Prior knowledge:
The chain is an alpha/beta fold. The chain has 2 domains: 7-180 and 360-373, Glycogen Phosphorylase B (Rossmann fold, 3-Layer(aba) Sandwich); 183-356, Rossmann fold. Helix content is 39%, strand content 17%. The strands form 2 sheets. It has a 7-stranded parallel beta sheet. A 6-stranded parallel beta sheet has the order 10-9-8-11-12-13, with helices on both faces. The longest helix has 14 residues, at 72-85.
Amino acid sequence: xxxxxxxxxLQAVASMGHGGIEHFLMxxxxxxxxxxxxxxxxxxxxxxCVFDKExxxxxxxxxxxxxxxxxxxxxGRYYREFFVEHPEVRAVHEHRSGCDGFFxxxxxxxxxxxxxxxxxxxxxxxxxxxxxxxxVTNAFNAPRLDTFANTFVACSDxxxxxxxxxxxxxxxxxxxxxxxxxxxxxxxxxxxxxxVRGRYGIARDALVVGxxxxxxxxxxxxxxxxxxxxxxxxxxQADALLLGDGPLREEVSGKADSLGVSRYxxxxxxxxxxxxxxxxxxxxxMPSLFEGLPVSCVEAQASGLPMVLxxxxxxxxxxxxxxxxxDLAEGSGAWSEAIRAVVEGGRYDxxxxxxxxxxxxxxxxxxxxNLYLSxxxx
Length: 378
C-alpha cells in the first residue's frame, strides 16, 4: 500500500473475453487482497467485454488504448500521456503470447518511472505465419525484453523458454507461476452432470469427450470431430461437448455434418458456468497445435477428469498423473484408443495434487501480491 491506499496495478490484455488468460486474471482478481492491491485493465479492443461489470464492481477501472499494431506512433503517444495522467499506477502487468508487435506500453512505463513492470508469458509457440512485420518485430524484441521490463513470469516452463529464451537475463530471472483457480468450485457434481446432459440431450451412459477453447486454428477442434466419429464407428456411444466460440465454429459444425455425427457434437457456446459442464464430461481432450499450460486443463483435473492432450502441450499440464499425451500425426484411431483407456480408470480426487503444485488461487494471490508490492515503497 502507499499512503494507506492499495497500489494500482495495470493489467494489459487484448480484451477480457472467455479465454484462458482472462479467466486466470479474474480468478486472481477475485482472490487478491484489495485492501493492498487494486487492479485496473487496459484493453486493445474498443468494445465492451464480458467481465466489465464485475471488474468495475470490484473497484477496477477499464481503459482502452489505441491499437499498437495498427497505430504504433499514436499508441506510443497515448501510453506516455496515460502515465502522466495516472501516476497512481505503480505496477504494469502485461500478458503476452509472443515477442512480436510493439512494446510501447512497457517502454512508456519505464520512462514514467513505474517501479514494477511485469511481462507474463502465456504461450509456447508463435501464433502467426507468413507475416513479415511480426517476424521482424519478434526478432528485434526477443533479445531486448529486459531493457524495459524488470520482472518476468510464465505459466509454464515451455512458455518461459518460448518468450524469454533469446534474452538470457530475462530467462534466468523468470519465475513460473501456474495459472491457479478456485479449486473447490470445480469439484465433481453429480447433480450438475445430470442437468447438463439433459440440457443437451446427451444419454446418461454416453462417453462425453469435452473441450473448452476458442474456435481458432490452433485449438484444432475439427480433429475432435474425427475422434468422435471414430469412436462411434467402433461401437462406442460417444458425444462431444465443446465450450467456446470463435471464427471457425461453423467449419467445425460443417465437419460434423459431413461425417454424419452432428447430432452427437454439442456446441455449448460461451458459458459463465463452466464447472457444471466439466462434471458432464468423462474425458477432457485438447488436440491443440500449440499451447502454454491451458487453464482449462487445470479446471478439468480439479473436476477429476482424465485427459488426452496433444504432444505439443507442456508436460506440466499433467498435474495429477491421469493424462496421456499423443502426437496428432498418430491420427484419430490412436486418440480413440487412448480415450477408451483413460476413461476406464474413472474419475479421481485431484485436490491435494493441485494444491501441492501451486494451483490454489488463494496461495497464488498471496504470491502475486508480494510480486506487485516488491518494488513499491510503503
